[in-house]
Amino acid sequence: MSLYKRALIGFTAIAFVSISTGASAADAARGAQVYEEQGCNGCHAPKEALVGPPHCGVVGRKAGTLEGYPYSEVMKDSGLTWDEKTLHQFIESPLSFLSGSNMGYAGLYDEKDRTDLIEFLKTQRAAASPECK
Ligand code: HEC
């Protein structure tokens, strides 16, 4: 095999590996951008209730359980816990997943955007993160 061909194969392999890890690794910094672009921050703050409930500690929390926030009945009664799976389902299409919720947001179709967004919630909005103390 010629040197040129070997180099080409090697290069293709490297490019493939970097592309595939790039696509699968959840990226919290990118998730922060998605959070803004999608307007989540227009209704959700880390610690205060705005239109929506505060997001600190949301991953791992039982849905609709923050004291003092006026959740819809369907959210309170959902029995859900917010983990990666339920967050993907809810954010993809809030009203088809939880019909009767009063979260006025149409949904985020792109799976990679949702993955990064959830990574952002898991890190920057974790109860122990600096902005949540
Ligand atoms: C127009 C305002 C609005 C926007 C935009 C919005 N939300 Fe909400 N969100 C709400 C409201 C209101 C609720 C409470 C819904 C209920 O009680 O049915 C809520 C609830 C939630 C909950 C459940 C919280 C809990 O304590 O159980 C999560 C998770 C959530 N939103 C994530 C998001 C994400 C992520 C985005 C951006 C993709 C977003 N929201 C955009 C208003 C909004």
Protein architecture, described:
This protein has one domain (27-132): Cytochrome Bc1 Complex, Chain D, domain 2 (Orthogonal Bundle). Helices cover 50% and strands 0% of the residues. The chain has seven helices and no strands. Helix 2 (28-37) crosses helix 7 and helix 5 packs across helix 7 (111-123). The mean pLDDT is 90. The structure holds heme C (HEC). Residues 38-40, 42-44, 51-53, 58, 63-64, 66, 71-72, 75, 82, 91, 101-105, 108, 117 line the site of heme C (HEC).
Provide tags for this entry.
133 residues, 7 helices, single chain, binds heme C, Cytochrome Bc1 Complex, Chain D, domain 2, mainly alpha
CATH architecture: Orthogonal Bundle
Mean pLDDT: 90
* Structural class category: mainly alpha
Question: Rough shape?
Answer: elongated
How large is the radius of gyration?
A: 19 Å
- Based on DSSP secondary structure assignment, what is the total number of beta strands? 0
Low-confidence stretches at least 5 residues in length (pLDDT < 50)?
A: none
CATH-defined fold name? Cytochrome Bc1 Complex, Chain D, domain 2
- The figure for the number of domains is 1
The amount of beta strand, in percent, is under 5%
The helix fraction, in percent, is: 40-55%
Q: What is the makeup of the main sheet?
A: none
By CATH, the superfamily comes out as Cytochrome c-like domain
Number of helices: 7
Bound molecules: heme C
N- to C-terminal distance = 60 Å
Question: What's the CATH class label?
Answer: Mainly Alpha
**What is the ordering of alpha helices and beta strands?**
HHHHHHH
